Predict the structure.
Amino acid sequence: MPGGFVFTLCAKPGETASAQAAGMPIGHMAWRVGPGPALLCHSIGSNMRGGAMILSDAGYNDERRGEGQAEEFRRALLLEIAQRSFTALVCDFEQRWSPTLERLVESVAPSLLRRGVTLYVPEAYARCDAETKVLIPTAITQGSLAGRLREATERYGGAARLALDIECAATDLALPSPDNAGKHINRAVLNALLMERGGQSFYSEELCARYFTYREADEHHFVIYDDGGTIQKKAQTALRMGIKHGFVLYPEVESYLAALVN
């Protein structure tokens, strides 16, 4: 781990055993918010204990909130955390902001904090409780990562309140791209594009990412992507600002684990 930065490997039930072998903290990806709201989970074994519980909002769009159901959700969530000795709850909320989910986060935050369980939330939910930790995405295509983290430090009350949400991604932008909204490409497509270029790419100090350009028909493309070296650079950039922790998806970094522990 570069200079004291701690990576948590987020893994699904079938990936847990191999992820644990890496010797890093584990985030268990097995729970999501269902209609009601209700706490739903995959089939999980007794080995899913300790570390962080990852709670997804994938597919959630139910804004009908009954007080009884919300309280039942809160009790079920706290019971699951206690029974499995989790030390953190990560709200992996990627859908649009939900007032129902915000109220749920607000309702569980005090109980978690009293029990010494760290609560991580996306930026959209940062106002739920001043004691929460805020997840800052590192997948940027303009500006600088250092500037992004500096702004977040000022906005959310200091580096101690922040953690990185590290997406080991590859993005293809057609230029010009006014909104910087490219399309995600998988590793097979990325490798094919790199092979066409003879493997040549460049490193951006500002983005802490690798990149290359290519032309297709009349379009110019800018491709930005991560590997083990760029993830380490992101961690080093964060650490210089006092941010000491980040979350990564285990399948995305499985090939790069050596770079993350050195």
User: Anything to note?
Assistant: The first helix runs from residue 16 to 20. The CA atoms of residues 50 and 85 lie 5 Å apart.
